[in-house]
Amino acid sequence: MNQILDFLGENMEMIYILILSIFVGVEVIGHVPSVLHTPLMSGANAIHGVVIIGAIIVMQNAEPDNVTAITLGFVSVFLGTLNVVGGFAVTDRMLEMFKKKK
Asked: Are residues 95 and 52 in the same domain?
């Protein structure tokens, strides 16, 4: 318990930044018009490619006996891939609405 309190005490500025960024993110997302929601979210999902690359780098540099890092890396790659594929699927369906029908 003391280690947790020491960690919180040493990183108080970063915790404040994290909390403020959560509030700013909620405010920004809350004021997005519904017309722009789908394109914005599909673009944000495509950014998860960065998460996939980061997770692959973590898994590559992890020691073979570090099961936690390898497991977290695998889960990150899996969930990031699902998010990227979902973002592209939503974008594709959205673009289908604008094509002329035969």
From this structure: yes
Count of structural domains within the chain: 2
Q: Which residues of the chain have pLDDT under 50?
A: none
What DSSP state is assigned to residue 10?
H
The whole-angstrom separation of Cα 85 and Cα 46 is 8
Per the document, the length of the chain is 102
**Dist. CA 95–CA 55, nearest whole Å:** 30
The alpha carbon of residue 25 and the mean position of all alpha carbons in its chain are separated, in whole angstroms, by 13
The residue among 51, 44, 93 whose CA lies nearest residue 73 is 51
Quick check: pTM over 0.70? no
Question: Distance (Å, rounded) from C-alpha 57 to C-alpha 22?
Answer: 26
